[in-house]
Amino acid sequence: MLRTTSTGFGMLALSGLMSDPAYGAVAGDGGSVGPHFAPKVKNVIFCYMSGGLSHIDSFDPKPRLAEEAGQPMPFETARTMFNQDGNIMPSPWDFHRYGESGIPVSDLFPHIATCVDDLAVIRSMTAKFMEHAQGNFYFHCGQPFTGFPSMGAWVTYGLGSGSRDLPGFVVIGSGGIPLGGINMFSSGFLPAEHQGSFLYPGAEEPLANIRPKEDDSKQRRRLDFIRSLDSMYLDRTAGHPQVEAAIKNYETAYYMQSAVPELVDIRDETPATRRLYGLDSTFPPKRNYALQCLTARRLIERGVRFVELTMVDGRNRGTGNSSNPWDQHTDLIIGHTRNAFAVDQPVAGLLQDLKTRGLLDETLVIFSGEFGRTPFVQGTNGRDHNPFGFSLWLAGGGVKRGTIYGATDEYGYHAIEGIRTVHDLHATVLHLLGIDHTKLSFRFGGRDFRLTDVHGHVIKEVLA
Predict the structure, then answer these.
(1) Contact of 116 with 410, CB cutoff 8 Å
(2) Cα–Cα distance between 388 and 384 in angstroms, integer?
(3) CA 153 to CA 196: how far, in whole Å?
(4) Residue 28's closest CA among 243, 319, 177, 211?
(5) C-alpha 390, offset from chain centre
(6) pLDDT tens for residues 138-157?
(7) Which one, of 143, 116, 173, 148, lies nearest residue 391 by Cα?
(8) Are 432 and 397 in contact (CB under 8 A)?
(9) Quick check: 214 pLDDT over 90?
(10) Are 355 and 118 a contacting pair, CB within 8 Å?
């Protein structure tokens, strides 16, 4: 039609368009897009501190808070979650410098402090939302609401899984699900094979509906028959990607029947390794998180691309707030002390174990919550949400180790140097995996979507 109209100029325009590479949907065979350039890392482990870890009590010391303790903030503050703003509250914990880099860390994290020379601490992260569910969705999906793919789903869409026997995106559970629910780990509009699979390593059935094989030959014949029927349906739907994803999920589930029991059986781990992670702790939340961290290492050893650890409520006070355990609007000292005790040794053990095994150079570890907390008190002994400037850290391959990037003001309230957004973090994570975030897109509803939306810049200052 184009050739017979407009004296061929339509064909000329079409050939120009076709010469431009397309980076949209997955290839017709369901394969991944593949890296755009040589990656620095192969895997990601995301330690998500849901609820909002206080940056000014952990990785961003502010001496001025102690100097002006009990005084009103010297400038107008923005609306907070509960608008019960009090006076300036100094950190209850002392900070000390560690390692050759001299990075200061509070007494909340004495074990992670010993690993600072492997960390890149970003002190100028910002978020657009101060409510937990919106903040959680934004941090995971780049959007503040449900229906969009999680970061882990985007990674497996871009790179696929490095394991035939396990899914590419695994969420390890033993605590509560962050506010917003399981949809923040979904594949959204991407094919369903990319959604996060929940694994509970200490449970009788670690992965729902996955049980050891009984009669392998009989089951294999049954699955082959089901696949033949599904393939006919796939032909009738012209290769619909969701149908293809369902077929692939059946196959992955079959292989997981053997892989999952072996994965969660840690009897081959040495007593020294168990102690390193804190599996011998008498504090149940620490034992649970230690098992998460150890399982994360075992998952990436088996080729799983993206692993997220859910935060265990370390307060142990029966508050029913396990979905956002760092959310200390009251009792900051009690809540943060117990939560930090639960995760500090396991996370440090994970970093040390990865490094010893030569895995840290090919793994990116992220440690962050959805926002920080205010420098002024809420009520008598808590802090409110603060999305205007907070800290997180990265460790692993391609990261400039033993460095601090960005800064908040003297009160730790607003980021003032090297201001960055969650979109920038997402762009950086994808970059380290060998993916150009502007080219990893998926056409949905007539528009090309990407994890970073129309935003995001790689934080080159934290790259080695």
Answers:
(1) no
(2) 12
(3) 7
(4) 243
(5) 16
(6) 999 999 999 999 999 999 99
(7) 116
(8) yes
(9) no
(10) yes
Both structure tokens of 364: 């990116």
The residue ranking higher by pLDDT, 166 or 19, is 166
Is the pLDDT confidence value at 412 over 90? yes
226: Cα within 13 Å, side-chain hemisphere: 15
Q: Note the pLDDT tens digit of each residue in 66-88.
A: 999 999 999 999 888 888 889 99
Do 58 and 350 touch, CB atoms closer than 8 A? no
Distance CA 81, CA 263 (A): 42
How far apart (Å, rounded) are the C-alpha atoms in residues 196 and 168? 8
Q: Is 50:322 a contact under the CB 8 Å cutoff?
A: no
Burial of residue 447 (number of CB atoms within 10 Å: 0-12, 13-18, 19+): exposed
- In three state form, how does the secondary structure of 103-134 look? EEEECCCHHHHCCHHHEEEEEEEECCCCCHHH
**Could you tell me which residues are beta bridge partners of residue 123?**
none
Q: At 211, which amino acid appears?
A: R
**pLDDT (0 to 100) of residue 23:** 37
Which pair of structure tokens corresponds to residue 436?
């150009």
**What per-residue confidence (pLDDT) applies to 33?**
74
List beta partners, residue 408.
Answer: 415
Residues 6+ apart with CB under 8 A from 154: 190, 194, 430, 440, 450, 451
